[in-house]
Amino acid sequence: MSNDCLLLRKEVRSLGNRLAKAPNNNALRLTYCNCKREYNKLKNKLKKDFFHSLIKQINEINPKNTKEFWGSINNYKKKNNNCEPAISAKEWEIHYKNLLASSNNDKTDTNQNIENKNHNFSNTSLNVPITCKEIKDCIKKLKKGKSGGPDLIINEFLKIIIKDLVMLSFVLLLTILSALVNALDNGLALTPTMGWRNWERFRCEVDCEHTQMTVLVKNYLWIWPMLL
Questions:
Q1: What global pTM score does this model have?
Q2: What is the rounded CA–CA span in Å between residue 144 and residue 156?
Q3: Transmembrane stretches, by residue range (predicted)?
Q4: % helix, strand, coil for the chain, step of 5
Q5: In 3D, which of 49, 37, 34, 39 has the Cα closest to residue 8?
Q6: Cβ-proximal residues to 15 (8 Å cutoff; 6+ apart), any chain
């Protein structure tokens, strides 16, 4: 900054202080505005000249001399980069941790409400025996032209032999369901997509009440995923 610019800045500040004490003085306000306009004009001109000289100096540097290039860039960096932020990083961390956090009481109440709903939940519509009519209706709703399931039995075949198959499916399904309940009580987790080793384990652990159905269930247990 040149001496002329420093003198103008000092005069602008002096006129500004006087104008603050006498805000209704129009002559003083006009003098202040003219002085400030001249100061801004000179300041912008000096800033423009400075950047032009900086660009000229950088262009004159040998492109292969990268050390001198970056050294000239670093020399013109602002020196006030070490100012402390208004809000520290720790304060920001605490703020965002507590922003959407819930209290322990709310968490306890939520868990208690979930437990109460689970204890009081009852689905009586599913707590009824499966009938032959339900199996017939399900087989009738099967779509044609679809590939077979894990048992490789296509839907057209099931529709044709529905009269003979429904009773077998009904008895087989009830027997498997009974064995499934016992397996679940023993801690065996069963799903239609689980590994084949678990299905083999389930087949080996089937203990039917009717002896004549034991061989049938063990040999045709692979139809269970389709019946699900």
A1: 0.31
A2: 6
A3: 165-184
A4: 70, 0, 30
A5: 39
A6: 28, 31, 32, 35, 36
Measured in residues, the chain has a length of 228
Dump pLDDT digits (tens) for 126-176: 667 777 788 788 888 888 888 877 767 788 887 877 766 666 666 666 666
What whole-number distance in Å separates Cα of residue 2 and Cα of residue 8?
A: 10
Distance in angstroms (rounded) separating the CA atoms of residues 195 and 107: 37
Q: For the chain, where are the alpha helices, taking DSSP H only?
A: 3-21, 26-60, 66-75, 89-97, 104-120, 132-140, 155-160, 162-185, 196-205, 214-219, 224-227
Q: What is the CB neighbour count within 10 angstroms for residue 95? A: 10
Q: Are 91 and 131 in contact (CB under 8 A)?
A: no
Compute how many other C-beta atoms are within 10 angstroms of the C-beta atom of residue 175.
19
- The pair of structure tokens assigned to 124 is 């009586």
The end-to-end CA distance of the chain, in Å, is 86
Round to whole Å and give the CA distance between 183 and 177: 10
Q: What angle do CA 92, 94, 99 make, to 5 degrees?
A: 95
pLDDT digits (tens, 9 = 90+) for 183-220: 656 655 555 444 444 544 544 444 444 433 444 444 44
Give the 3-state secondary structure of residue 73: helix
Angle between helices 26-60 and 66-75 (to 10 degrees): 170
